[in-house]
Amino acid sequence: MKIIRATADVITADLGPDNALAINNALNEICNGVNLNDWDFQTRMGVDREQARAVLRAISDAISSMKQQRLTEGKKW
Length: 77
Description:
Layout: E1 2-6, E2 11-14, H1 17-33, H2 38-45, H3 49-72
Antiparallel strand pairs: 1-2
Helix pairs in contact: 1-3
C-alpha cells in the first residue's frame, strides 16, 4: 500500500490485491460477522453501520473489477 496524498478532506491510496482484501475482509467481519448493537458499533468504529457498509460495497466492487482485470491480463489472483 502506498499513500499518494493526504489532505484535510481526502486520502488517496494505492492498494494492491492483498491490502484491498484485508480491508474488505475486516469491514465484512465487523459489518456482518460480529454481533454489535448500533450504539456499540458506532462507538467502536466511529461511523454508523450503514456508512461502514457503503465503504464495504465500494471496496468490494473495486476488488471485483481488479480481479477481472488481473485475470484478463493472465495475472494470478
